[in-house]
Amino acid sequence: MNHFAIIVTVKLKPGTADDFRAHVLENARAARRDEPDCHRFDVLVSEDDADTLFFYEEYTEAASLDAHRETPHYKKFRDATDHMVAERSIQRCSVLSG
Fold this sequence. Notes:
By secondary structure, this protein is of the alpha+beta class. Helices cover 36% and strands 36% of the residues. It has a four-stranded antiparallel β-sheet with strand order 2-3-1-4.
């Protein structure tokens, strides 16, 4: 069975990048540590724009992402950062290799 992944693109409001990064890195560490169906959670920043970040998240299946969104660490992250986000897009993917 192929794993499920998402690629998230986040454009931040000016002046929020440092605070946002601290929160998202905490969320990524907690997902990898506490969620057995989270196989990868990478946080990347654009070389051209420090206010644009990308997340690559890989899960066993799509339902694992739904479970991730119900965890206390994810809810804490969203509550702390939603006001910092100017734009967010999510691409759902099937992993062909890994």
